[in-house]
Structures are given as structure tokens and as C-alpha cells.
Task: structure prediction
Amino acid sequence: QKEVEQNSGPLSVPEGAIASLNCTYSDRGSQSFFWYRQYSGKSPELIMSIYSNGDKEDGRFTAQLNKASQYVSLLIRDSQPSDSATYLCAVNWQTGANNLFFGTGTRLTVIP
Amino acid sequence: GAVVSQHPSRVICKSGTSVKIECRSLDFQATTMFWYRQFPKKSLMLMATSNEGSKATYEQGVEKDKFLINHASLTLSTLTVTSAHPEDSSFYICSAPATGFFQETQYFGPGTRLLVL
Result:
């Protein structure tokens, strides 16, 4: 059974610190990986996508992918209170397939 | 980025009634759209894949006769919850893929919160 696992949290970090969010997935053949941010009562918003091993940086966000370890992470530098949300890891199981399997999400709280 | 809208944003209905939710891609065409359901403090669960011009594909455990999907055009998919019951109360979210690089990215609508009394 395909699974995407995240620590549900809550994860609390002080403002200005680095928040580290982790995700593991079960299907070794997975091709694409996404991080979504979801504020309470709202729909998910795409933050980052990553397809190749290594790091991908976009502003304060860095996604890291290690396919050998079946692990993907999201680092948020200089965390702000507005970053407080639930972060969902999503995995696309097949190349070209148009559906995502989501983890349960990690709730992040940035303390002012 | 691509914009997906949903209507209504919130609906309250009596048990036994049917509710229709619309999902529109506003600035791109989507031959495929996805319908998700999210219960409180739970992750998104894919319900079905909506295909323009053909039948929807339902995930295991989702009743196709209860959740009717119609993909009427390249920009519109509708989900009808028939004979709704309190256990159908949930947050329903649609998404559509916007083709970019070799892997497609999905864009989500704002969601529809359904409360069945």
C-alpha cells in the first residue's frame, strides 16, 4: 500500500528560526513531489515542487529530495508568524499521472 | 499561476437533499479535474478523477451513484452529492492540472464546505 508519512506535529519554532518539515514515502518509483501549505479552513496552496535529488531553493523555502532514502523535506528559513499553517507533502506515484497522494500534514506554529 | 474557482463556498442543507458543487478553471483548459474530500484535521483524500467527455474514475470506496460527477466542458466539472447525510459533511476541494514541465502541477480551488443537518 502506497503511503506518505509526515509527523503531525504540532511543530513550534520561534520567529526567525528555521523550520524543518519531513516526509517519507513508500513507493520507490515515485517521480514528483510537492509541498503544499494549507491555512485553516482554506484549500492547499502549492509552495514547492521537486523532481530530482538534491536541493531546490525558492526564496525562504528549500525543498530537499533523497530518492534513495525515499525522503523529502522542506526548510523554511527566517520563519514568520504568517508561515503558521499545516504543510502537506504530496507524491505523484507515476510519471505523467495526474493525481497526488497526500500525507496527513504537519502543523507548524511560528511563535512571535 | 492558474486559477480554479469553486461554487458555492459554503452550503448547509437538510438530510436527504442533493447538493451540486461547481469547479471551474478560469484561465486554462482542463480535460481532467480531481475531486478531494477533507475531514477536520485530516488530509485530503482523492475521491474521483473527472474526465471531459467521458465517465469519471472513482477511487475505491467512493460510491459513484452517490457522488455524481459531470465534466461538461474543458473548464467545468460538477460534483453532486445525492441524498446527502450528516456523514457527508466535509470540505470538498477540486483541483486541475496545469501543464508545465514534464510533470504536471495541480492547482486547487478554494473549497466548498458542506454541512448536512
